[in-house]
Design brief:
about 475 residues; alpha/beta; eight-stranded parallel beta barrel; two-stranded antiparallel ribbon; 21 helices; about 10% strand
């Protein structure tokens, strides 16, 4: 059967999907995809997979794709990050029998993508992207798609999209933010950019950004003319978003936990989903938030979820007539609803004095009391504090280390060169010297090598001498035998 392209691919293979669940690292796993499909999602993406790791590691393939094969989980698009045409295509060849298309991630704006040289940090390397998509389009039996972020300029974004289409991209998802718009600086996605791309290309286009409820989906399709709309954050806080419903949080949480029992996934994924679903409630019940963070089994997570449900039902039972939601929320905190990410100024207030007065903790800094003084501790430090209550993070109490003469890192206490191990190793190797403090014995090993070579030569000379004496003796015996 010939490979379908463009509109035909969207209509037939993707079944004219309008409602799409985004690829989300550690979040769009099989269990969550099945929950989302039950509540209106028509197409799902896997989490972003690393092409190089997928190619070399059989366990990675099994854990992230092969072991998750499920007839209900179609249509499905597998997303890869990559920066090498051959590696990308070889990884895609191993995945193509388990999905309906392969997506190239050109939208990840995170620092890990910058360090790994993939995602949105490839958007200026058009020659490389052309080669990757051309080769994938030629070698794969399924279509190649791309997910991109926009440039600040609409014209450049349009040319970028047209270049990808010309190279062989069969469907384009456009996130209407630049790679600089992330975290508290995310801001509003530009539907104008998405509309311009939709008008400029002939392949199907999905829009991503500013989607918090079904009315946003409908408005986006109407304004931009796209074929479908992709949701990430909105879907995580309300899996029934595409149904146009705002269900009770515990209904979604219990249904998800039931699916996880059948299709297990790492506990960290489950915990992260419940933090999203219960986000607003966990601002009220801080103790349960901490319990959810510490629990180490699925049964423990189920217990915390049950306790949250009981607390909410008790609150509903004691609710006064005409009472309205607090903190400016559109619904009461036990109902699935959007989470509006605070901007930088709002985040400062949330984590500062005003937030402390209300007893509300910021996402990355929770108030901690120690020796009568309050300080802001990161989540990582809080975990260390839980393991060791006596641990102090006071900089003045940190031990002072002497610095390496070469690079400034802490030097070895017994290093003969007054260096850290890395610098010491380079110098000891260069000078054929020893440093017992770091266990580096280049000089000793070299001398042992010379001694061994010398002893080997003595043994060889003795063997040659012995063989020479034997040969002379044999010649004498033969001569006597001849004379006789």
């Amino acid at each position: 059967m010939p490979k379908l392209r463009g509109e035909a691919f969207w209509r037939e293979t993707l079944r004219s999907a309008h409602y799409v669940v985004a690829p989300m690292v550690d979040q769009s796993e099989l269990a969550w995809r099945l929950l989302s499909r039950r509540h209106g999602a028509q197409l799902c993406y896997t989490p972003m997979l690393h092409a190089q790791v997928f190619l070399r590691d059989a366990n990675y393939r099994r854990e992230n794709l092969y072991g998750e094969a499920c007839p209900e989980d179609r249509p499905l698009i597998v997303q890869f990050c990559a920066n090498d045409p051959e590696v990308f295509v070889q990884a895609a060849l191993l995945a193509q029998d388990y999905c309906d298309a392969i997506d190239l991630n050109l939208g990840c704006p995170q620092m890990i993508a910058k360090r790994g040289h993939y995602g949105a940090f490839l958007q200026e390397e058009w020659d490389l992207l052309q080669r990757m998509i051309l080769l994938a389009n030629e070698k794969l039996s399924v279509p190649i798609t791309c997910k991109i972020r926009v440039f600040p300029e609409i014209d450049k974004t349009v040319k970028y999209a047209q270049m990808l289409e010309k190279a062989g991209c069969q469907l384009l998802t456009v996130h209407g933010r630049t790679k600089e718009q992330k975290g508290p600086l995310a801001g509003v996605a530009s539907w104008e950019h998405i509309q311009a791309v939709r008008k400029a290309v002939s392949i199907p286009v999905f829009a991503n950004g500013n989607i918090q409820c079904l009315s946003d989906v409908e408005e986006c399709i109407r304004k931009t003319g796209v074929h479908g709309v992709m949701s990430a954050e909105g879907n995580l806080h309300n899996p029934a978003l595409f149904e146009g419903r705002n269900p009770l949080v515990w209904e979604m949480a219990e249904e998800y936990l039931e699916i996880v029992q059948k299709y297990p996934c790492p506990l960290s994924y489950v915990r992260a989903h419940l933090f999203k679903l219960w986000h607003h409630t966990l601002q009220v019940y801080q103790q349960l938030r901490e319990e959810l963070a510490k629990v180490k089994t699925l049964e423990g997570i189920v217990d915390v979820n049950r306790e949250l449900k009981l607390r909410c039902q008790e609150e509903i039972a004691n609710q006064k007539e005409g009472e309205k939601p607090k903190e400016g929320l559109p619904f009461f905190h036990w109902i699935c609803q959007p989470y509006i990410r605070p901007g930088p100024k709002e985040r400062c207030k949330e984590n500062g004095a005003s937030g402390t007065e209300k007893g509300v903790r910021g996402k990355r800094a929770l108030e901690e009391e120690e020796d009568g003084n309050s300080e802001l501790l990161s989540k990582n430090k809080q975990k260390k504090k839980l393991r060791n209550p006596n641990k102090s993070f006071d900089p003045s109490l940190k031990p002072k280390y002497a610095k390496c003469d070469q690079c400034g890192n802490p030097k070895g206490n017994k290093c003969v060169f007054n260096m850290c191990r890395g610098c010491c190793k380079k110098r000891a190797f260069r000078e054929t010297a020893d440093c017992p403090g770091h266990g580096l014995l280049f000089k000793t090993k070299y001398e042992k090598s010379l001694s061994w070579q010398s002893s080997q030569r003595v043994i060889q000379n003795a063997e040659i001498s012995r063989r020479g004496d034997v040969d002379v003796g044999e010649a004498a015996v033969l001569k006597e035998a001849g004379d006789g």
